[in-house]
Amino acid sequence: MPILVMKFGGTSVADLTRIRAAAEKVRAEVARGHDVIVIVSAMAGRTNELVGWVNETSPLYDAREYDAVVSSGENVTAGLMALTLQEMDVPARSWQGWQVPIHTTSAHGAARIEGIDRAALDAKFAEGFRVAVIAGFQGLSPEGRITTLGRGGSDTTAVAFAAAFDAIRCDIYTDVDGIYTTDPRISAKARKLARISFEEMLELASLGAKVLQTRSVELAMRYKVRLRVLSSFEETDETSGTLVCDEDEIMESKVVSGVAHSRDEAKLTLVTVEDRPGIAAAIFGPLAEAGVNVDMIVQNISEQAQGDGEGPREVTDMTFSCPTDQVARARKALEAAQERGDIRFDSLEVDTEVSKVSVVGIGMRSHAGVAARMFAALAAEGVNIKVIATSEIKISVLIDRKYMELAVQALHDAFGLDKAD
Amino acid sequence: MPILVMKFGGTSVADLTRIRAAAEKVRAEVARGHDVIVIVSAMAGRTNELVGWVNETSPLYDAREYDAVVSSGENVTAGLMALTLQEMDVPARSWQGWQVPIHTTSAHGAARIEGIDRAALDAKFAEGFRVAVIAGFQGLSPEGRITTLGRGGSDTTAVAFAAAFDAIRCDIYTDVDGIYTTDPRISAKARKLARISFEEMLELASLGAKVLQTRSVELAMRYKVRLRVLSSFEETDETSGTLVCDEDEIMESKVVSGVAHSRDEAKLTLVTVEDRPGIAAAIFGPLAEAGVNVDMIVQNISEQAQGDGEGPREVTDMTFSCPTDQVARARKALEAAQERGDIRFDSLEVDTEVSKVSVVGIGMRSHAGVAARMFAALAAEGVNIKVIATSEIKISVLIDRKYMELAVQALHDAFGLDKAD
């Protein structure tokens, strides 16, 4: 029988009533003729409670014990989901990560799935079992210890099972009903997308649309697992939600699929920094070591400056962006580098009142003029652009934070995203 | 290094503060030169919460899923205990039942331990690890599913590890500081015993002293595991608590070690029941099937009765006791048996206002006159005895409930239990 993977996040299994509602959705898919692999998260709040206990017990905890404790939340939900399905006369049983087993690396707290043994589940499905319930977010290390995959790991578990079992689709049930052209809290004209490509979803995920974890989308793209995002709190059918799929499956012709934003960005500029081969490495190496997530980088053209009795030298300004809460760390790392003599600059200018707005679309590859249209739309609203960065399917700009909502709405209109496909 | 097993029950690990206090006791034993195997229960209240969820989800639950859910409580405590010990610079790690593994039968919810693999722990101790923390109450079935051992199972886990690792002792930390000559709430003269034999402890455990589970004492007796019961809420040292051990280790000469009681007993009498071979089986078979825990049984001598036109027949009265909350079930089973014609009796007399009081002591084996002394002490207080039952090291009587406290105090005095050994 065709296998379908269904994943339910923490809010979708927050209590016994919601577990029952989720189980009803599973039963409906079984009735449609699917064998189902269900991936469950811990009941909402449980993982945070367990993490809190671990942190209180041991601030610099042994990650192997952290994983042993924290993984227990998913085990509880898996057993309760199997029991709920059995009560509905759906043949089901639960599996914990070590029982499948789900083989992972030994990187406790952030392990990667290396393989999933199909044998146990295949045998059960052959026996007539219709639903395998899997505790998400966890696996087994080569040393026989329990591992966890890190935040959002249950999405990754779901995609990995879909790939291993050649599932027809991987349905991610969550608290939103799909992927939108932009944040509906910012633009009332935001429209749910019927389909979106993996590449676009990756750009949107990394831009702050928190519906799907970047890693699970990457994995889905690599193994061509069709992902569907839909609501666990509404009636759903075969057409609900948004399908994340290969671009070959997408017929529509829109150049831009969505407008994303990231509110709390900071813009940092190293003024009059010496320009020589290796200077970028000398700046961004220490920042990476300090855990600063540098996003956009712009280097001005070089010019001559008069040194202090050393004759003229080549200098430039180097601008980059990072989340506002990493500014202090960035400043410390750069000043330390200057003290060590690794870099030389006159001053560090910091603007913590900026936001990033991006337009994303695979159509950009074949359509010229997207950037011009974007800049014109912003100019028409009097929004000044501070930094620009582009990729093959994305254009991002840094702007003053006070214009963020305005810019998102203007771009949404300019690219006709409010109109049906 | 000599191995010591230490077990902490649910109230002893109820929160992070108590886990830390328990870990301090473990550290003290490590400092005394022991390698330690720690067995932990779930944090108090957790198991009941999980059981509640299972029962609400599925009243007739799949016991395999019940076990998968309920065992998670001990896994959390085991990880937190290992982390707490690490914070104290004591090398420790946690093991779940399947990791050791602890092999059990497939009787989910009431599994029996069949064997414990020493290899993994032995290797860790050889590496210099000083403490293995084991999640109690659980194991692994031959089918690879998680099992639980039933209520009080963590005591059994502790004794099984002590037997498998030839431990010098198995310390059971609980919320009382030892085994008493009688219930201190009834007699202010109750005295803590320094030592008690396995046999006596078994009689006391089954008589309602809830400190140790019967099954764990049986296992300790079979493998000659020295058990110590002591408080996790007090300062303790090598002499604290009560040692439960082989009678060869007990020097004292007291004939009676303790006075036990069971408050809510009922006495049932089948009046004028036909006396024929097989009548006892015809009565107690249906009671057993109905789940009635019959305790004491007394059969009067037989006499002739005039049947209704059938000529004289042999009749007797049959008296037995059971917990008061099982009386309704017992009555139903006996009346059903009469309707089927399996037994014949004139009436069923029920007295739900009785209690059981027992004296227990291995000294009885070699001392005559214990029963006479017991009956004299009760007679002196005007307490009427309704039923008597004896074993090799125990004499029990049923009496009116209103005399229970008086009887316990009188017997405690009569056998000199208030005086030091």
Q: How would you sum up this structure, described in words?
A:
Two copies of one chain form a homodimer. Chain A has two domains: 173 residues, Carbamate kinase, CATH 3.40.1160; 155 residues, VC0802-like (2-Layer Sandwich). Chain A starts with a strand and ends in a 7-residue tail after the last helix. In chain A, strands 3-6-2-1-9-11-12-10 form an eight-stranded mixed sheet, sandwiched between helices. In chain A, strands 13, 14, 15, 16, 17, 18 and 19 form a seven-stranded antiparallel sheet that branches. Chain A is an alpha/beta fold. In chain A, strand 1, helix 1 and strand 2 form a beta-alpha-beta unit. Helices cover 33% and strands 27% of the residues of chain A. At the A-B interface, helix 2, helix 3 and helix 4 of A face helix 2, helix 3 and helix 4 of B.
Give me a quick take on this structure.
Chain A is an alpha/beta fold and 421 residues long.
Core attributes:
homodimer, 421 residues, alpha/beta, Carbamate kinase, VC0802-like, 2 domains, eight-stranded mixed beta sheet, seven-stranded antiparallel beta sheet, 12 helices, 33% helix
